[in-house]
What we know:
The protein is mainly alpha-helical.
Amino acid sequence: MAKITNITSTAIAEAAASELASSAPPKRSTSRKAAGVKPAARKMQSRQRAAKPEPAEVAPSAADGSSPSRTTKASIVLGLLRQAAGVSVADLSATTGWQAHSVRGFLSAVVRKKNGLTVTSDVGEDGIRRYRIPGDV
């Protein structure tokens, strides 16, 4: 037969206190959903973590000490448009990596509306439409 011992309530309280002190805190959930982060906050967190693209090539500063100029896709497109022969949408797409509808949108919104430049288009003998900025701009 098992021996029954007299355990007092203070002994039980002391044992429980020592057990709580020695045990590690409960492991918390690492998922955002369990942590109660709302979807909008998750979106912001993912945007903050997103890597920012590297800037375009920077040309060395001029000898006169002015700030360095950046070679951007917009400046490349404007340079191609200033050629006397003009440039086709396919050529601009290949140069910039943009799709054709993005090139046409850039010509309309940025070149024509924002910069106030006149863009002309002509269809050549080969049947390809070429865009250019006429005159000394």
